[in-house]
Amino acid sequence: MTRPDAGRRREAAGPEGATVRRGRRAVAGAAAVWAAAALLGPAGPASADTPGASAGPGAVTVPGTAAVPGKGAAPGTAVLPGAAAASPSAADLPAMSQTLPDVRENGCRKPSTRTTVDRAPWAQVYLRPESVWPLGRGAGVTVAVLGSGTDASAGTGSGVLAGRLTFGPRLHGQGDAGRDCVGHGTFLAGLVAGRRTPDSGPAGIAPEATVLAVAVTDDAGTTTPDLLAQGIRAAADGGARVAVVGVPVPAPNQALTDAVEYAAAKGLLLVAPAGSDGQSAKGGAVFPAGYPGVLAVASIGPGGGPSPGDTGAGPGGTGGTGGTGARVDLAAPGEGLQAAGPGGGYFTASGPSGAAALVAGAAALLLSREPGWTPSQVAERLKSTAYRPGSALPDPVVGWGTLDVVAAVTAPPPATGAPAAPAEPVTVPPPPDRTALTRASAVAGASAALVAVVALAAAVVRAGRRRTAGRPSQS
After folding, report:
1. Does the reported pTM lie above 0.90?
2. CA dihedral sign of residues 264, 270, 275, 281
C-alpha cells in the first residue's frame, strides 16, 4: 500500500522551501477559519480551563502542525487572536460521559435543560464541514453508532435525527437500541449526523446520513469483547458503510478479531477511539482500534495540541510508533464538543470517542460522493489529506495528522475512482562527472595545436626548398 506521506517527501528537499510551503498552508487555513467564523456566528473567548487557551485570549490554533503542551506551537501553526474558541464554555452545558457509574443509585442521565446554543462550537469552525455540504451531506450512507443506544426521540418530530434514525439490536439488558440510559450513544450520533437547528447550534458532520443505533453496553455504559463483536456484525449486516465505536475494550478475544475481519469483508469501515475518554495511554492499546485496518482516532483541543491524558501524550505511551502505547492513525477535535443528548437538550463532552465520531461523519461525506470506495480507500484518503504534524510519520500523538474534512472531500478523484496515490519522490540525478570530458577536450586541443605547428613547419621547409631551387648557380 502506498504510504500516505509519500507525496510530501519532496518538502524535505530543502528546509527553506518546506518552511515556505507550510507557511502558505497555514495562511490559507487561517483565512478559511476567519471566513467560517464570520459565517457561523460571533466568536467568544476561550474559557480558562479550555485546553489550548494559553495561545491567548479567545485564540484558536489553525492546524498546520499539532502544538504539544509544553513545547509551544510547531512551525506552520497559525494563531488567530479573537477567533472562535470553545463557545459556549464547558461550564455552560451539562457534561456527557462515556459511562454512568452511579446509574444504580441515581438512575439514567437526566435530560439537559439547555435546548438552544447561540453560536457554532469551535470544532465546527475548525473543521468547516458546511464548506463541502454543496457536494454532499452524507445522504444514502448509513453510519452505525455502537454504544449505549440512541434515544428514539432524536429520530422523531423536531429531533436532530428526525427521519434518519434506525435501530439495530440491544445486546445487553431489556428493550431495544432506542433506549439510551447513559446518553453517550445519542451524543455521538448527533456529532455524526445531527441536523442544523434554527438556533445555529451544533450540527453533525454529515447532516443527511442515516444512523443505525446498535446498543452494545449495559446501563452503566460498559461492554465486553463479545458484545462488541456482536455489535460489529450487526452493523455490517444492517447495511452500514461506517461504524463508530463508542466504548473500546482493553483486550481483544477471538470473537472480536473475527468480527473485525467480517466487517472488512462486508465493506464496513470501523472508526474507533485510540483510548478511553479521560484516561491515559499507560495501559497500552485498546480495541478494536488496536487492529490493523481499523481507523484509530485521537483527540486534540482548540489549541491544536493533544487532549490531556490522551493516547501517546502521557508517559509510557509511544502512540503510532508501537511499544506500550496505542496506535494512532488520525486526530480530530475532541475537547469541549457539543451535541444533543437524550431528550433533545445539549451536552458537552471531551475525549477520543467524540473525535472518532467526527471522523466517521467525514467518512460518510466522502462515501456520499464516492459510493464505490472500499473502507481502505476511504481511510487512506482521510489520512493522506490530513494536516501534517511536521514530524516523522506516523506521529505518536496525531498519527498521519489532523482531520481535514474539506481537503478529504474536495480532492479530485482519479479516473479509476480510487483515491489519488501520492506521488513518488522525484529523484534528481547528480550532475555528470565532467573530469573525463575536460581531459579529453584538453588532449584534443593540444593535438590540434601540435598538428598545426607541424603543418606550419612543413610549409616553411617546402617554401625554403623552392627558393633554394630557383636561385642561379654561382659556379
Report:
1. no
2. positive
